[in-house]
Write a structure and sequence with these properties.
By secondary structure, this protein is mainly alpha-helical. The chain is built from 45 helices and eleven strands. The strands form three sheets. A six-stranded mixed beta sheet has the order 3-2-4-5-1-6, sandwiched between helices. Strands 7-9-8 form a three-stranded mixed beta sheet. Helix 6 crosses helix 7 and helix 20 runs parallel beside helix 25. InterPro entries: AAA_16 (IPR041664), P-loop_NTPase (IPR027417), Sig_transdc_resp-reg_C-effctor (IPR016032), TPR-like_helical_dom_sf (IPR011990), Tscrpt_reg_LuxR_C (IPR000792), WH-like_DNA-bd_sf (IPR036388).
Length: about 900
Amino acid sequence: MEDLFDTVNESDEPLVLVTGRAGAGRTTALAELGTRVREDGGRVSAVRFTARGDVLPLLFRTGATDSVSVPREPTLASFGPVTGARSDQAVAERAAAALLASLQQPGGRSFLLIDDAHWVDPDSLAILSALTRRAASGTIRCVCAVRTPVLEPVASEAVDELRKSGLVRHFRMRPMSRTEIGREVTSTASVLPEPELVDFLHAQSRGVRAAFREAYEHLERLGQVRVVDKRAYLVPAPRAGAPMTRGGITEMCAGLGPSVLGTAEAAAVLAPLGPDMPVLAAEALEVAEEAVIRDLEILRRHGVLHKGADGGWRFVIPQIASSLIAGMGPCTKQQFAAKAVTAVWTGAAVCTDADYLSDRVVDAGKLVDSRRALGHLLRQSTAASEDRMEVALRWLGATVELAENRSQRMMILLTHTAICHSRGKYAESLHGARRLLENFADHLSAGTAQELQAAAVVALGRLARTEPLSTLAEGHHHWPGTPEATLVTRALACGMLDRWAETDRLLAEGAEQWTAGNTTSAMFASLHRSFARLCVGDLRYFETSIEDRAGWPLRTVRRYHAEQVNLHVAGLLTSGELGPAESLLAEEELPEEELHPSSRVMISALKGDIHSATAIARRALAYRSSGGFDAGYSGMHHLLVSMLASCGKFATARQLLANARSTNPVLAHLLDLADAEYDLLLGDPVSAAAKVRAALAYAEARGIVIGLDLVWALLADLTIDLGDRATAERCLADIERLAETTPTVRNIVHALFVRAIVTGDRAAAAECLRRCGERGQPLEQTKIQAKLIKHGVADPDGLSEVYETLGAHGCLLVRARTRSIMRERGIPVPGRQEAVAENEHLLAVLMSEGLSNKQLASALRTSEKSVEGRLSRLASRTGHRSRIELSKALLNGEFETGAPSA
């Protein structure tokens, strides 16, 4: 560590004590110090002491950042116990003189590093004291790592004497701050942790390095760290627990003996019960209270526990308690939990933390009164606020099997299933819906059965369970329910398979049935038929649904109203209709938190706010916060992938695209289109054209029309560049037919665009740009304007406007290409120094995204030799010589751009 190296270098005192709690990083600090000293030409001898009294070489590898088991070169010292040194000062002085002679290095500095010096035996301590006094005016430094609190009074007295003589410099290993924890996560995992994750790690570890590592690794095992776009989020655990290997910070308890470890485990569960904990622990362990108190005192002296003024006990580092609980066997945990619950319920202990008690009730299971447990968990889960819904789900889930009768079990299961579905927990919601539909059909109303069937279909779709969806869509299987529910569920299954023409046909043919049936079925049918008609190109039916929304079934029910608004907004945004979507939201006054994240992302993206769009998307994808049918999922990813690739973030874009495909979303042709734009920006127009054709084939096979304007516009652009005029002309005929039958503004804009680039019609180009300007979508306008200029049907001077807009929105890759085109055409490029800085930053981004030199050359439209030269200059200027280093620097905000000084 740099601070320790500076302290030792600047110290006039011959002895430096490095102190800190167990796991604070003392050994790592010594290893780094030894490495730095050797690099500076100094001589290093290093040993470590053990609790058994052994003296062993301290092994570390030159250049390593932490202690390892195999050294690159041996580090030996003759320091160790000499019999009689403690009782005979002359013996200690002779041993110290011999050690001093062996350590000295002519013309250089020498260091004796001693790890775990709190285990130093009395004879060795006497020699160390004598050595310190002899080295006071020389070039030898002793650096001792000592764990605090120090238990041996003899050692403390010896150090106090040396300190009074001015021979000791103290260096305390400070706890890691939140900032340091964040940087450590980035350094070790190459991700940027979000504030919630950093706060949790800091609270659990209290800044102790080993505890922080244990906490982070345990979160990873539980699946509570989810990474999106190189950002790490703390998310609720998908399961109750996971096996945990005890790390060094927890092994300290085990090293104190089986009895102390057992007491520590009991304390981990029972400590929140305050002063009553010792007697409860004794009862749970079936030992005398005096034995428990003795063990607690041992843990206190070793810095594991703290005893408060009220007699209560708490773990100094909460992660130790968490690790102990995670490492317990299920029976042990259940018994301790039962002891806690019984004590509170009988009045033997007091608990003010309702969450703690609820968790212990769940852990105790059948060892406590089932009826009382059921009542408690139902009250707590019902009263939980929205931000605590994840813990409430655990409590509610435990009550299902505690229910006293079938009706109560059905109601609990229904509530649990609904919450899981609303929070995107599709495996759980599917399991609950199937269980209810198959085992409780006689208890369900027609509307509830329909809602459960719809939830099951959506869950099957989001989990990519295509086989059971196909069985439902073909009518080969259905759940118990009314005929209209069976019809509507079949139509919804077709929709989840992207067979929107079939959805429309089924609902049209069965309209008389579902309009006369239960209101919930009518709501789902009318809503999804409206969206299906939009998908197959009937804009008027969709617009009529919006105009007549006062007649939407069940619109006074909040969740149904939100679902209907969300689906219509998603349809508008996927069609590129930003203004009408925002008007609908304003008129319906839907709170932002009830709008699907995919729609929030598309609104920001269409406005050109890439930062907000990616931030919303990252969090939504990390927390999987979009519950229910999300018609805008593919549209969101199409915009995200296109934007990220335009900024040079290819690896992130590819990851998002792969994740989106894994869920088999509706309107999947938009993912093929995003894939094509990705390849095009990476410099592969042939592959891009093939993927656009795949998108077209997918949509046409299913009768999908929405989004085809994007497909035909990109295909026309690509085929002109590739010399395939015939295909471009067919695209023109198809897109003009689309603009006539489905006259959305975006369809008309793209029809004008294709006419301009295929026929050279500059009037069409001008009208296209005029209409674009009215839409308030800057990135769309910029993309179209640049392509019109490329095809020679718009004024090249417009590239200056394009260039400024790309810069304002952070599209570094496309801006760099535009800069090259401007220079080729003799158009002035403003800000030479700014351009050099942007080129450096773009190269760093592309390199950190993992692109090969060949891909870098393709993306930057240059040669591999040029790329090699630019990489060499970048490494020389910044000092970052690897992709990992660049990635970390970019994440931490440590990468500095700028032209080299003249």
